[in-house]
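request received
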Amino acid sequence: MARPRLSEHTRQQLLDEGVAAFLTGGYHGTGLKEVLDRVNVPKGSFYNYFESKEAFGAAAIAHYAECLGSKLTGALARVPDDPLAGLRLFFAQLTAEFQAANYVGGCLVANLGGELEGSDVCRSALAGAMRDWRNGLRKALGAAQQRGQLRADMDAGEMADLLVETWEGAVIRMKIERSTVPLQRCLDRLLGDYFQPPIRAGGA
Amino acid sequence: MARPRLSEHTRQQLLDEGVAAFLTGGYHGTGLKEVLDRVNVPKGSFYNYFESKEAFGAAAIAHYAECLGSKLTGALARVPDDPLAGLRLFFAQLTAEFQAANYVGGCLVANLGGELEGSDVCRSALAGAMRDWRNGLRKALGAAQQRGQLRADMDAGEMADLLVETWEGAVIRMKIERSTVPLQRCLDRLLGDYFQPPIRAGGA
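response:
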């Protein structure tokens, strides 16, 4: 039997549509058929790309994490001398995207993290996505610390962990209440207050 | 046609089993049949209690919120003179339950909040659950402020909002990483540090 010809373009399209479908319909609420129909791939060919819905879910999570990482890198690169402004730019971009989507979707990691009990394959992909996202933030937070933009007495990794967790919870609440207030609070309270350097005594 | 005889006991059983099933299987991943089988209720009778799966989902969310509220009230009542200790007791109880369940389940509000795009009925129930949970915490945080256990320069409602959001995100991460570290960080960072009263100058 001839080896099937695989197209990287089709694979990327499947992942893009998979992310979009899982975001709005959830993992269990998404049928492979609707994804395939959008990309015009017959079901038989799908299995040349991914061996199962579960493997496809894991690949979509990894794809989503890559996109998130690119957005963070891009935002930081726009203001190379101001990592705190870069972080704010990144979160403002995510917020604008959530608003543009009318709060439908949110964060794939949080959504599938809530839903995916049974699949170790997907859980492992979610853990990887969470780790990459946290490590990207840690790097930016550390750079902001070095410039004196953020307090130096808290580990940048610990800050990144708390920021990721608060943001994910805020995104869930944003979806429930259809409001960006929780997102804004996360940024104001953490980046704008708790992570700020102490006001120097006598500096006023 | 005779009006069907409804049993409050059966209704409660359906809600208990619904919460358990939605927690582990998600909304879309849960079939009504499995819930009915556990309670020994035929499908026809189910619709005497709830008009649809969606209405059942909303009722299960409200039932879950009530249980959460009772746990908080119970924990606070155990140490009536120490609301901060009561809050810690409450979160320790939730943490112990998550561990006992081997991190399967988590918080129904976060799980369904991630998954329930399409249903305004369920979204409204989730918003109500979130509001009740936040208001219960606000009351306890306010009491802790009045006793000087927590800083007085931050609104108790704002603290409660941030605590709810960080906790929900931490629960999602707990599920993904099968670890209570995110939960502990939420409590240590917020209750144990950010929400603490300032150390008085000259007080050392």
